[in-house]
Batch of 2 targets.
Target 1
Amino acid sequence: MEYALTPKQNDVILEYITEEPKITLLSGAKRAGKTYLAILMYLNHIAQYENQGLSFIIGGSTQASIRRNILNDMELFVGELKLDKTNAVTIFGNKVYCFDGANADAWKKVRGFTAAGALMNEGTALHDTFVKEVISRCSYEGARIVIDTNPENPSHSVKTDYIDHDGQRLSNGRLNIKAFNFKLIDNTFLDPEYIESIIASTPSGMFTERDIHGNWVAAEGAIYKDFDEKRHFIDSIDHSKIVKYFVGVDWGYEHNGVIVVMGKDAPGAYYLIEEHAERHMEIDYWVNVAKDVQRRYGNIIFWCDSARPEHIARFRKEDIKAKNGHKNVLHGIETVAKKIKTDQFKVVRKNAPLFDKEIFMYVWNSDKGEPVKEWDDCMDSVRYAVFSEEITGHRKSDKSTHDALQSLGL
């Protein structure tokens, strides 16, 4: 069976077949066709050992991501793949074991293993010791490793230990490491309108460099580069347009504790309606603030920083609907930044003086690739609120769609 490939994918797989690198890395922009190609390359490798009963490895951040990103697409080529009790599937008469490798002790799962090859998905999401252990376990003659990943900070070990050694050869002349970089436009199967839309909505700076151009760049400068006080600050809000209210909470004492009341309209734009920020206040004070918010906006959700579970427990004891906010920092920032870039984020300026102070002082730590822990109190509370609402809103939407299809017998 023949499968259509983009010109970029075709060039890469031809070099993979002819040069036979031991370690191949596919890095670059999202939706550029990296994972699909990695699957084809890996299946091609396993097929070389058909019916030999050898062991192979698939590594991913979680078992769920392995199913979603790898096994589901593999089934298009080899048919249904059912995991056995050892988390293995059978492909071309060989056992392929699936390991989740995001945690520091994940490497122990592959200790003592001998494999003829490995595919590692989302390489930067895997723990460095896991990546190295998997590579060391691919000791069978002719073993090959394929790693696909999106770019991150250029100091990440996937780049410094492997990509930066592109072209490295062994003493026998065999190519040891080959790295390929992908840009969004390399995926010629994508609708041009889709590409234009993605480029237009991707936040400036680091996100554009990584997600569109596939570059390994450090985060630097202001985090919300697209925030424009003339466009994003507003004088007041029309509450008749708001379809949902919710709250973000960042606990504090020596630094500001912050509660922000957010609104969302039907098209999906977010509004920072009011902010409550104080230092050196005990939990009783914040309970009173939350109850006042409840009195005015109803029994809405408070998305809280999970670092203070005792405060969340107190809120719940007071019948305040407190939940742990989703705290993936980079994804949360990207979610807020996209809303800013597409003018779907507004702030009632007179009601948010700390936000006004922090927004242009909220900057990246270029060495760590994360925000500087200063001028971030209101920024954190906004991130908990918006990111959590986006995640839970999409889950509910997906469930509603699923239920609707199921009711139709589909």
Note: Residues 397-410 have pLDDT under 50 and may be disordered.
Target 2
Amino acid sequence: MPLHYINELLGLPELQLHTIVSIDTKEVHLEASPVTYKQPCPGCHSEQDVKRDGRNASRKIRHLSIFGKKSYLHVPSIRMACTRCQISFVWMYDFVGPKQRYSWAFRTQTVEQAFGSTATHSAKMQEVPVSTVQRMHQDALPAESKRLTEQAWCEAQNTSGLVLGIDDFAIKKGHTYNTGIHNLRGETMLDLFPGRKLEALRAYAKQHPDFLALKPKAVVMDLAQAYHTWIRECFPNAIRIADRFHVHGYVIESVQAVRKSVQHTLAPRARAILKSHHHLLNPPAETLSDKGRTELDILLGYSPLLRQVWEWKEAFSRWYDHSLNVHVACLGFQRWCQQGESVNHDAVRSALKTMRNWEAEIVNYHRCRWTNATVEGRHNRIKAYQRRRYFMPNQTFYKAGILIECNRHRLSG
């Protein structure tokens, strides 16, 4: 292949290839030099008084693979001198940084691979040391995180009818938590900060005026009192919505509590069947297969109480899906609570007490139909990232990595 075609494949217009130094089954070594004869002085930015002053040993630069082989560019390290400024400098290439052995294009490709996988996997793909990939990754994290975060905040500030999602995720289950702020309409993560107690939430709002400057139409949260108090203080006009996923979880927990109490009264064979198929009680009946519905009928036939609480759970799903407006939702919610009062079980009574206490926030779903479903999916992505990065000890890199992981698929490059 002629050298000028190889030059086009490399995509480096500042270089002119001279010869192929060597080529084997794994590597290609190419010798190249700058297209121009002189380079402007970094002090006075002029070429008139610049002259060549010899050269050092050539630089060996790893570039993108060509023909399925690792490519290395051998470029001269030319010494330059400016008679006006009385300074000396070495030729500066645009495709590689000073004193670096990997081109910018190679670093970008390697970092992009590391963002979606592990440093070990990226190192194996590029055939470089793992420590090199880790260093490149950490060098790229702050700038990429800043770029994506600024883009996400700009989008949130300019969004009409902004809907925020607030939820926490565990660093160490039961001990340490982070709180995430999400733009549900834009499907981006705006920020995260340590803690989930009211003091930590208020401190964040005080330190971040950009957050208080947002004008959300609604905010979706779970039933944590701290979140609702905080949002009421920050955005008094926003609709506070109790997340459907969390609210429905209380009802499902009641069904499973009834199932456990019924289970102890059954014969051993029936007890084993009910225990092994208890998951069939959770999803809506219409989402089950024909086999699943048949097995569910068998489970519900073990106890009238279990069937009664399951029908109460199904009525709640229908209320969420089929309430036409807020007025109809309020009436339907009261009928559903009355239906639950007929179930004689402590778990159901406890759930009903919680539902009545949060009635306004639960019904608000029918004012603005948004949930934190995308947030829960993003939490799974965060957990996968934490496992890949072994709970990165540097908090700056940890936060930057999570923001990139959650936003890079949504925001433009």
Note: The chain has three domains: 3-101, 156-243+371-407, 245-366.
